[in-house]
Amino acid sequence: MATRALREVVVRRRVGAAGIVGGRRFSDTAAAAAAAPAGAAERGDGGAGKAVNLFTAVNQALHIALDTDPRSYVFGEDVGFGGVFRCTTGLAERFGKQRVFNTPLCEQGIAGFAIGLAAMDNRAIAEIQFADYIFPAFDQIVNEAAKFRYRSGNEFNCGGLTIRSPYGAVGHGGHYHSQSPEAFFCHVPGLKVVIPRSPREAKGLLLASIRDPNPVIFFEPKWLYRLAVEEVPEGDYMLPLSQAEVIRKGSDITLVGWGAQLAVLAQACEDASKDGISCELIDLRTLIPWDKETVEASVSKTGKLLVSHEAPVTGGFGAEIAASIAERCFQRLEAPVARVCGLDTPFPLVYEQFYMPTKNKIVDAIKATVNY
């Protein structure tokens, strides 16, 4: 199936402008807007909306991506049947098995094929069924996709590559279906890493990722596939990458997170407010390149920072945020940067509630930091 799809593509050489963003080599991000079809708003509302859950919002984004760009392909294990989380439901029936197809159970092969397809001026949207199984594709992603533009002196690239994968806790996944591997890819120059917190964010950020002229790793919080429901515009729209969002204003402490952890942080903010603590909550949205300026401005105001994520605390991306803000805001910090994260253990099954960075853990850390 994949071979037939490859025969259909036209071989092209794509040469794009390149620049340095946050110390990493990326193609000009303004090209993402140019790559979007006419009528797609960069920050637009996408027209009227209705309440849908997160996996439906992802499905809408994939429909739009395939419909607006004939160079787009969606593939991965079981995607032709709708996928294990139903994110690709109806795509093969509408767009055909030449553009939406199953692959062998071989993540290295999925990533390698995706890189080749994207290098030929196509939009390769590859699915890794669980983020826990992205590691067999690690060499292809890190040593090929991330370095393609750099090693060719900008003559070639695979900027049309987006790798989607569900990540994080799901309530019963155990150590092979619950991991949060985002920090591994944040360490790699040449990749972008994006994680949405809600259905509206998922649709707009996924469309922006697919149209961005750089390889993007797009992690979807599987815990929220069905639990998170909000009004999502039915039309085509994109949300800006590398731009954090302040979703709650506050004055006493800054809280930073991404993905499913935003819901937990929001609950902690509510509980802390009952004790008179005003929390400012920021969704990072894009981890690489991340929006240091928005976080710095917030911490300069509050004087305190707490970062929370599901991945283990040691080497987690929260450590990079803590180090960067300590450098930028050293004279304005009134307390050590706090981190409330997963434990340095394999992800447990029956002890998941002890592993997770829960609302109560965060509230305790908020109070300790504010009262430092």
From TrEMBL:
One GO term (biological process): branched-chain amino acid catabolic process
InterPro entries: THDP-binding (IPR029061), Transketo_C/PFOR_II (IPR009014), Transketolase-like_Pyr-bd (IPR005475), Transketolase_C (IPR033248)
Ribonucleoprotein recorded as keyword: no
Source taxon at top rank: Eukaryota
Catalysed reactions, as listed in the record: N(6)-[(R)-lipoyl]-L-lysyl-[protein] + 3-methyl-2-oxobutanoate + H(+) = N(6)-[(R)-S(8)-2-methylpropanoyldihydrolipoyl]-L-lysyl-[protein] + CO2
Record GO terms (molecular function): branched-chain 2-oxo acid dehydrogenase activity
UniProt-recorded name of the protein: 3-methyl-2-oxobutanoate dehydrogenase (2-methylpropanoyl-transferring)
Organism: Hordeum vulgare subsp. vulgare
Encoding gene, per UniProt annotation: LOC123404000
